[in-house]
Structure formats: C-alpha cells, structure tokens
Amino acid sequence: MKYDSQQAQTDSVVKSLIDRLEELKAEDISVIEFEKNKWLFDKALIATGSSSRHVATLADKLCDLLKEEYSIFTKSEGYQAAEWILIDAGSVIINIFQEETRRKYDLEEIWKKIGSAEKALK
C-alpha cells in the first residue's frame, strides 16, 4: 500500500486528537481504520467521557484543535443531550460517548462485522 501525503496528514491529525483526548482525561480511546476509497472517511476515533458536560467539553476542545492546528472546519451532531457527539472532520470521524451510550451502540463491533462481511463478499 502506498503511503501518501493525505494519509500522513490524517495520521498526524489522529495522533494530535488522541494526545488531546488523553490530556482531557477521555477514556477507552480507540481508532478504527477503514479501507481507503470505500468509505467517506479513512479513520474513526472513539472515546468515552464521564458525563454530558465532559463529552461536550471534549468535543469543543477537539473542534478547536482541528480548526487552529489544521484549518479543518468540522460539522457536529449531538450536543443537545451530549450522550454521543459525532464530529465530521473529513477523513476522520470522531465519536465521543458517555459510557452507557457507547456500550448500547457498540460501534466497534458493528464496524468489525461490516468489515468481515465485506471481506467475505469478495
């Protein structure tokens, strides 16, 4: 697989996001990589906040980081209840959950099943 400048940029963004999440005490941080050109994004970042306020703060700080450091303007959903905030940052999507909501939706398992199904269909 060829490693291009866009992938290098995405990797740099993800590392910065993980560093910021760790600084802000997010828990269970994980990254899921997707096959290039099959999805609208290359990577998904998933993290857990301890409360609705913590989830909203994490989302705000990540959006600020993306704008200030990378000139990436984001779109987000879920601030009202702040149980699950989704941030679209182009090649990276960010999902910040409260613990119970993360368990309920279990995105890691869903994406693993989708990936397995895609491989089986080939």
From TrEMBL:
<comment type="similarity">
    <text>Belongs to the Iojap/RsfS family.</text>
</comment>
<comment type="function">
    <text>Functions as a ribosomal silencing factor. Interacts with ribosomal protein uL14 (rplN), blocking formation of intersubunit bridge B8. Prevents association of the 30S and 50S ribosomal subunits and the formation of functional ribosomes, thus repressing translation.</text>
</comment>
<comment type="subunit">
    <text>Interacts with ribosomal protein uL14 (rplN).</text>
</comment>
<keyword id="KW-0810">Translation regulation</keyword>
<protein>
    <recommendedName>
        <fullName>Ribosomal silencing factor RsfS</fullName>
    </recommendedName>
</protein>
<dbReference type="InterPro" id="IPR043519">
    <property type="entry name" value="NT_sf"/>
</dbReference>
<dbReference type="Pfam" id="PF02410">
    <property type="entry name" value="RsfS"/>
</dbReference>
<keyword id="KW-0963">Cytoplasm</keyword>
<keyword id="KW-0678">Repressor</keyword>
<dbReference type="InterPro" id="IPR004394">
    <property type="entry name" value="Iojap/RsfS/C7orf30"/>
</dbReference>
